[in-house]
Specification:
Blueprint (H helix, E strand, L loop, with lengths): L3 E7 L3 E7 L5 E8 L11 E2 L1 H19 L6 E8 L4 E5 L9 E2 L7 H9 L2 H9 L8 H11 L3 H6 L3 E5 H9 L9 E3 H4 L5 E2 L4 E2 L1 H7 L8 E3 L8 E2 L10 E7 H8 L8 E5 L3 E8 L10 E6 L7 E8 L3 H11 L7 H6 L9 E3 L17 E3 L7 H27 L6 E4 L6 H11 L3 E4 L4 H13 L6 H7 L2 E5 L5 H17 L8
Helix pairs in contact: 1-6, 9-14, 10-12, 12-13
């Protein structure tokens, strides 16, 4: 009897494996962190081999701890840090270079050149994305141009590309001994290489980056009754079908059961990512958001979304801990911030790798403004939490302008939602209620839902909606004057961060 569905959640700082039952309840999990490699200013890398080893380990540890075998799992889904780029040899299985992480800014000149000569408008029209360091296309080009032997290996058909979902699926299904080279529509939509309307790699876009089509994985639905492949022996649990694959933010949208047009969620992790379901309509943003694929279930038409991607939110709290040392653990930021009634006039814009949505300014850098002798580390802690919330308001305002949809409630998930003060500030700054579900691990849950739907473990999305239950709701407490004045100060602080570095 297959009573459970598994989910691999390969994130920016860690990898976890989770097991869920039919009610969407967590049965067990194991999680391991991996190294953050920072070889130069603005460069962020991961070791793909370490990520694969961590993945194999968390699967084994979780299932052994639960005393479950392959026969107990109906299917497994994969969700992953999007845009993070791996290029490896299909014959040997060895990566040619470390994974270049989505936060990495080394491709700023590639992105700037695309916008200068008009190719940027073609990329926007076809892929729904602006030319930016964030996405995979420029990272692949950088590896082809800067890592010895990769261009020649690509010409021989040996060098292949994938975001971390493709890298894991290839290894999970046997690696160089027959592993599948696939991705799904959500991950493919984050590369600047896929046409949003055809859901296929676009020859003109590939030409802009000099990327051979043969490097790229096959694009499949996010939930596929025809498995991508079967789990192979390296994990010790061979034979389980792999039937779900979603980029992490789309997975969280599925986990939050935002299946109706107009429903939105905001995930608070390393960065923040707000997605608004626009249904089968591909809405083109005029206000700095991304048009992206939300999910595709089987042979159904794809569902699209508008997305606001924010680079630095939870990682700003880590910066207070690791670089400034004013807290010893992330949970302490709430205690410190509660020592003061307000931000004391201090605003912190954590534009460490430029500003993402809705600004898309790679020339911006972080700034703390409004300081006086009166201010303490508590004011900075509070300003950090407010920065998370103000950046989310920037995105919510752009979404309303693009879609005409005014949020009645914001569904939230991710690690930062455990911070009650931050969630109260979010309700205050947005002026709408904020709602957190009982199951906060919505990214892994969404991958499990996609995998389970494919094999009939869940009959349809109505069953998934019935699983969703609210854990806590925060109501706005600020008046309109407080909200207006606070946001005006934030916008002034944003302007201070611009034109800080030269981008040629």
């Amino acid at each position: 009897m297959t009573d459970f569905v598994g989910a691999i959640d390969q994130g920016t700082t860690s990898t976890r494996f989770m097991v869920f039952d039919h009610n969407g309840t967590e049965v067990g999990k194991h999680q391991l962190e991996h190294e953050q490699i920072l070889p130069a200013a603005g460069w962020v890398e991961h070791n793909p081999v370490e990520i694969w080893e961590r993945t194999s380990s968390v699967i084994q540890t979780t299932l052994n701890g639960l005393r479950l075998g392959a026969e107990d799992l109906a299917a497994i889904g994969v969700t992953n840090q999007r845009e993070t780029t791996v290029v490896w040899n299909r014959r040997t299985g060895r990566p040619y270079y470390n994974a270049i992480v989505w936060q990495d800014t080394r491709t700023d000149r590639i992105a700037a050149a695309l916008d200068r000569d008009g190719r940027g408008e073609v990329i926007r029209a076809k892929s729904g994305l602006p030319p930016a360091t964030y996405f995979s296309g420029g990272k692949i080009q950088w590896i082809l141009e800067n890592v010895d032997g990769v261009r020649a290996a690509a010409a021989r058909g040996e060098a292949i590309f994938g975001n971390t979902d493709s890298w894991l699926l290839w290894n999970l299904t046997g690696g160089q001994r027959g592993g599948v080279h696939v991705t799904d529509v959500t991950n493919a939509s984050r590369t600047m290489l896929m046409n949003l309307q055809t859901l296929d790699w676009d020859e003109e876009l590939l030409g802009f980056f000099g990327i051979p089509r043969e490097m790229l994985p096959q694009i499949r639905p996010s939930s596929d009754p025809e498995p991508y492949g079967l789990l192979a022996n390296p994990t010790g649990f061979a034979g389980v079908p792999l039937t779900g694959d979603l980029g992490d933010q789309q997975a969280a949208t599925v986990g939050q059961v935002c299946f109706a047009p107009g429903e939105a969620k905001n995930t608070y992790g390393t960065g923040n990512f707000m997605l608004l379901n626009t249904g089968q309509e591909l809405v083109r943003s005029k206000h700095g958001l991304l048009s992206t694929v939300c999910y595709q279930f089987g042979n159904q038409a794809p569902v699209y979304a508008l997305e606001g991607s924010i680079a630095v939110t939870g990682s700003a709290v880590q910066w207070l801990r690791d670089q400034l040392g004013i807290i010893s653990g992330a949970s302490e930021v709430e205690t410190l911030a509660r020592q003061v009634e307000d931000n004391g006039g201090v605003y912190f814009v954590p534009a460490f790798s430029g500003l993402f949505a809705p600004y898309w300014r790679s020339d911006a850098r972080g700034a703390i403004v409004g300081l006086s002798r009166f201010n303490t580390n508590a004011h900075l802690a509070r300003a950090t939490l407010e920065a998370i919330c103000y950046q989310s308001r920037d995105v919510a305002e752009a979404m309303e302008q693009d879609s005409g949809v005014h949020l009645d409630v914001l569904r939230v998930d991710g690690g930062v939602t455990r911070n009650d003060l931050c969630m109260q500030l979010q309700a205050n700054i947005l002026g709408v209620p904020v709602s957190r579900p009982v199951v906060a691990e919505t990214t892994a849950l969404g991958a499990a839902y996609a995998a389970g739907l494919a094999v009939g473990f869940w009959a349809g999305t109505d069953e998934l909606c019935a699983n969703w239950h609210e854990s806590k709701r925060w109501q706005p407490e600020w008046n309109e004057d407080q909200r207006r004045d606070g946001y005006a100060g934030w916008q002034k602080a944003i302007r201070r961060t611009l034109d800080w570095v030269e981008v040629n």
